[in-house]
Amino acid sequence: MEFRNLGKSGLKVPVLSFGTGTFGGQGPLFSAWGNSGVEEARRLIDICVEAGANLFDSADVYSNGAAEEVLGAAIKGRRNEVLISTKTSLPMGDGPSDAGSSRSRLLHAVEASLKRLGTDHIDLLQLHAFDAHTPVDEVLYTLDLLVRDGKVRYIGASNFSGWHLMKSLAIAERHGWPRHVAHQVYYSLVGRDYEWELMPLGLDQGVGGLIWSPLGWGRLTGKIRRGQPLPENSRLHDTAQWGPPVEEERLYRIVDALDAVAVETGKSVPQIAIAWLLSRPTVASVIIGARNEAQLRDNLGAVGWLLSPEQIQRLDTASNVMPAYPYYPYRTQEGFSRLNPPPV
């Protein structure tokens, strides 16, 4: 397993990490993802640790806290062998203080996560969404307190826009508070919006990408093919409305390219999709999810080999899409290209 520094920090993370959204199985969204209990979770964690993928990502909102509880129980007795990443800010109830990143909410949320995880510290705490109702100074000051208290080691963000993240970084630098070293983002061959602004920002500011849904919300599993109905066991039947839409013909064009590379390499479609992500700038770790051992072992096979430059180019071409304004004007003109070189 390769390890990379997480952004501009000294924390080294494996290039593949495990997402615990499949733990717990509560609610319509997360039950469709998976419902691993403690014993199954322990087995999946054993496989990850054996392979060197020792970073486990969770969130308080996953199955309303049950995912953190399952993770905590599954790693009991070997806390020092693993890194724990979790997230907070999304609603955990209907009360006025049950969502957001206010000082009150963050202090309460961290204590609750520590209890569910059965640990005294969180290696990486990420804000699950930007809170426009709380001053950024209040958020970052509170995170600084949590780091000073030893309850949190590093901080990050998730699903921020460019200006959300840059404002947070600037205020942290001004006051000498901890900076976001990670940005957990959606990025895949069918969802390349991360490249337009967030990737250049990460390169400039030293923020590492933690990639969620690397298989495009289940579209790049190798089970979806041109001219074939959606497989009966696909979770897209239950979860498509929560994920980003993908134009059908573009999806099939990408799958065709993945199939061709799969024949050349002898690798599976998911392995190629993940390997492509690991070749991209700023990507520190790709978060893989699995409902069973077979899926997990297949995803772990995405490391230890490399796509050729020509194969990467073919996947780039098949998945390319015109960026939104203001990222597309003049992109093909020589003068503009000199001023704004592409990140990849």
Description:
By secondary structure, this protein is an alpha/beta fold. The chain has one domain: Alpha-Beta Barrel (TIM Barrel). The protein is built from 13 helices and 10 strands. Strands 3-4-5-6-7-8-9-10 form an 8-stranded parallel barrel, surrounded by 6 helices. Strands 1-2 form a two-stranded antiparallel sheet. The model has no long low-confidence stretch (mean pLDDT 92).
| Spatial ordering of strands, largest sheet | 3-4-5-6-7-8-9-10
CATH topology: TIM Barrel
The number of distinct structural domains comes to 1
Extended strand count:
10
Secondary-structure-derived class = alpha/beta
Proportion of residues in extended strands: 5-15%
N-to-C order of helices and strands: EEEHHEHEHEHEHEHEHHHEHHH
Which runs of at least 5 residues are low in confidence (pLDDT < 50)? none
The CATH superfamily is NADP-dependent oxidoreductase domain
Distance between the termini: 24 Å
Which terms would index this structure?
alpha/beta; TIM Barrel; 8-stranded parallel beta barrel; two-stranded antiparallel ribbon
Short overview:
This protein has 344 residues and is an alpha/beta fold. Helices cover 40% and strands 15% of the residues.
Element layout with pairings:
Layout: E1 3-5, E2 12-14, E3 16-19, H1 28-33, H2 38-51, E4 55-57, H3 66-74, E5 83-88, H4 103-117, E6 122-127, H5 136-148, E7 152-158, H6 162-175, E8 180-186, H7 198-205, E9 208-212, H8 236-239, H9 248-265, H10 269-278, E10 283-288, H11 293-300, H12 309-319, H13 334-339
Parallel strand pairs: 3-4, 3-10, 4-5, 5-6, 6-7, 7-8, 8-9, 9-10
Antiparallel strand pairs: 1-2
